[in-house]
Design a protein that fits this description.
The complex is a heterodimer of chains A (about 240) and B (about 280).
Chain A: E1 4-17, H1 24-32, E2 38-51, E3 56-61, H2 67-74, E4 82-88, E5 91-93, H3 107-117, H4 122-136, H5 151-164, E6 169-174, H6 176-191, E7 195-200, H7 205-215, E8 218-222, E9 228-229
Helix pairs in contact in A: 3-4, 3-5, 4-5
Chain B: H1 4-7, E1 14-16, H2 23-33, H3 35-51, H4 58-78, H5 86-109, H6 111-118, H7 126-154, H8 165-187, H9 193-207, H10 222-226, H11 229-243, H12 249-273, H13 277-280
Helix pairs in contact in B: 3-7, 4-5, 4-7, 5-7, 5-8, 5-9, 5-11, 7-8, 8-11, 8-12, 11-12
The chains are: A alpha/beta (about 240), B mainly alpha (about 280).
């Protein structure tokens, strides 16, 4: 497994309009009058780091320090405003369980939908389905609509799909309660050489530090609170 | 392992945000890679729409039939329009229109779901427009059934020129996809695009000879037809069904050229804006 992540001088600047302009009509009028103002918000500035194959990294930092933005860059959900992001390997978000699940569709159909959403071909998902179904212990219900499932059954199905995906890099915004639940799972993944890159969040980073030195090998601390720039920009 | 190039390995997905390839080509490759998702989205849409309804898939066929009955009454009995076998004339136009209107409206409405998904994981957003076109095509094929029904009932011949229909549909699909990409891109930035487009579609419907014959348009208003790309497209679609002749090479050429231009410009506009979607969410 040779997955790795590399960020070179990465900056992300969000442009926040002073007033919310949601309609095309309003936008056109303001543009004509040259009255479009934005605040620039720098979530990340010239961040450099590298994650080698098989390393686990947890990012900690204050609210608004740019942890989620960092994850979104690696997940290629967004492009950096400046700099370069290189990711080698298939990334998968572990906790986006059941993303795209639809109650009217059967379990089998939802497996196909969720799998193709992660970039797998239909043929590949068809061959993975029996294993997923078996693992979720849903053989009898797999052709019933998911809306008829209990919460537990739906969760088992979602989790079973997620674990069958075999990503090279796991990305997560970890919620407090779930860290404990997935601890073993993270450890297994790391042992297999899967990169784990998590946003170890919110209020109390200390509680995660112990856990993470157990689970991951790195903690990336984001201390610098982002700068708020006031700029008047014409679009 | 200091240079990213060094990290690239065959068979392992490789992503470099700084890659300066053409955005349009990159998106096209991504769409091809995610074609399975397009398929699943189309299946989901069709299944979900009909799964819990009594009439199920028959709805797709019933709606144009009812429309046809109403419009036939209005146009042949009340307005005394001189069109032989008006039901067939109307149905062939209505099928054409339903595909265009449905596909483009749906493309303009996809932005919410696509934002939800694309905020969390990487998905090439063109899959949502492609899925809208796919759903439209399935519905179009289904609505051929009531058309054939009408033909059988009225004793209208099914011409050999029907075999040209796939080409006409392909031309229309290109055009609808192009418009769809423009709408999708605009709608992801502005929330009023969808409502605006509803009004435009309504007006466009009456400006296009769907319910009336182009021959009844007075000469001084003919230019409105010539400026309307859907005029050429509907003629291309209708001639093999209703008139039983192939569209002239000039007509096919004009339709095809229009569709290709609209499709490519829509695609390029969309692909070059796609990077900004995450910031505009």
């Amino acid at each position: 497994m040779s997955a790795a992540i590399r960020l070179e001088k990465v900056s992300v600047r969000y442009r926040i309009p002073r007033e919310r302009i949601g309609s095309l009509k309003e936008y056109a009028i303001r543009r004509l009058k040259r009255r479009l103002f934005f605040d620039e918000f720098e979530a990340l500035r010239e961040v450099d780091f590298e994650v080698g194959p098989g390393e686990g990294v947890g990012v900690i930092g204050r609210n608004g320090a740019g942890k989620s933005t960092l994850l979104r860059l690696v997940a290629r959900v967004m492009l950096p405003s400046a700099g370069r992001v290189v990711v080698v390997g298939r990334t998968a978000p572990l906790l986006e369980l059941g993303l795209g699940f639809h109650g009217e569709l059967t379990g089998r159909e939802n497996i196909m939908l969720h799998g193709t959403l992660l970039g797998f071909s239909r043929a590949e998902m068809r061959s993975r389905t029996p294993r997923i179904v078996e693992w979720a212990e849903l053989e009898e219900f797999i052709d019933a609509p998911v809306r008829t499932y209990s919460t537990g059954m739906a969760a088992r199905l979602a989790f079973s799909v997620a674990t069958d995906v075999d990503p090279d890099i796991l990305l997560d915004e970890t919620l407090d309660g779930l860290v404990e639940m997935f601890k073993e799972w993270y450890k297994n993944a790391l042992n297999k050489g899967v990169n784990v890159f998590t946003d170890l969040t919110r209020d109390n980073p200390q509680t995660f530090q112990g856990l993470y030195s157990e689970v991951g090998n790195h903690l990336l601390q984001r201390k610098d609170a982002p700068m708020r720039h006031r700029k008047h920009a014409h679009a | 392992m200091s240079t990213p190039e060094f990290l690239a390995r065959p068979g392992v997905p490789f992503y470099d945000s700084a890659e300066r390839r053409s955005r349009s080509l990159a998106e096209a490759r991504a769409l091809w890679q995610y074609r399975g998702l397009v398929h699943e989205l189309v299946v989901r849409d069709i299944k979900v729409r009909y799964k819990r309804s009594v009439l199920g898939i028959a709805w797709t066929m019933l709606a144009p039939l009812l429309n046809m009955v109403a419009l036939t009454l209005v146009f042949s009995s009340i307005l005394k329009q001189q069109i032989t076998n008006y039901p067939v004339f109307f149905m062939s136009g209505a099928i054409f229109w339903a595909f265009f209107a449905q596909t483009t409206t749906s493309a303009a409405s996809q932005t919410q779901e696509s934002n939800e998904l694309a905020k969390r994981i990487y998905v090439p957003r063109s899959v949502f427009v492609a899925a809208a076109v796919g759903v439209g095509l399935v519905n179009l094929v289904l609505s051929i059934v009531p058309l054939v029904l009408i033909l059988l009932v009225t004793g209208f011949p099914i011409h050999a020129t029907w075999s040209f229909l796939p080409v006409a549909v392909l031309i229309e699909a290109l055009f609808a996809a192009g418009v769809g990409f423009f709408l999708f891109t605009l709608a992801s930035r502005f929330s009023d695009v969808r409502e605006m487009y509803q009004v435009i579609v309504q007006t466009w419907f009456f400006l296009t000879p769907i319910v009336y014959h182009p021959a009844i348009v007075p000469p001084k208003f003919r230019f409105a037809l010539w400026l309307n790309p859907l005029y050429y497209l509907v003629q291309t679609f209708r001639k093999p069904v209703y008139d039983g002749v192939l569209p002239s090479p000039a007509l096919i050429g004009a339709s095809l050229a229009l569709s290709v231009v609209v499709f490519l410009s829509g695609w390029i506009y969309f692909a070059n804006r796609a990077d900004r979607f995450a910031y505009e969410g």
